Amino acid sequence: MFTLSSAALMASGCAIVLLMPGPTNTLLAAAGLRLGFRRSAHLTAFELAGYLVSITVWGLCFTHASQSLSWLPKILRVASSLYLAWLAIRLWLTADSIETSNVKVIGPRTLFSATVLNPKAILFAGSIFPPAAFATFSIWLEAMALFAILLIPIGCAWIAIGAAPREGRLPLLRPAIIQRCASVVVALFSGSLIWALAH
Fold this sequence. Notes:
By secondary structure, this protein is mainly alpha-helical. It has one domain. It has helices spanning 4-19, 23-35, 37-40, 43-65, 72-93, 108-116, 120-128, 137-166, 175-198. Helix 2 (23-35) packs antiparallel against helix 9, helix 4 (43-65) packs across helix 7 (120-128) and helix 5 runs antiparallel to helix 9 (175-198). It is globular and about 50 Å long. The termini are far apart. Keywords: Cell membrane, Membrane, Transmembrane, Transmembrane helix. Its main location: membrane. This is Threonine/homoserine/homoserine lactone efflux protein. The chain crosses the membrane at residues 45-63, 75-93, 146-165, 177-198.
């Protein structure tokens, strides 16, 4: 069982990391830009599912097999970087068609995959979630419930930020420019993973 202080500590840590710009938040904003808030809000469920998988796997690795699988973090970091680079290119190349095309560049599968590979999951599993969450199912359930309560409104806020220019609240910003900016942010995250691995 969580104590009130440990729950508050975990909640504050999760909220700070979830609010930070990153690959998943950038994709949520880009989805809001392309499809609007109402048609994109369901993507937060796929973000939650992606984090659930990734945080659980990382937590179990850190708890039970971190010494014998010391190469695993490097492999996953390279895989994350390559996937994010591909996603950045895809966002850039489709930016000009965003205002005239109905193609869904950012769908549930894309968002789920990007979230599974999001390096924030390592931070959640290794530093913010209590180690007991990966040893006892009831504590894991409590931790994930608290995480979900924070993730859904924060994810929706990122979608709303992206949807603002589409819905006329920021008329000076063209959707293509915002999507290209999203592409650059995702590319920078990709590069930062390789940089951290090389140094």
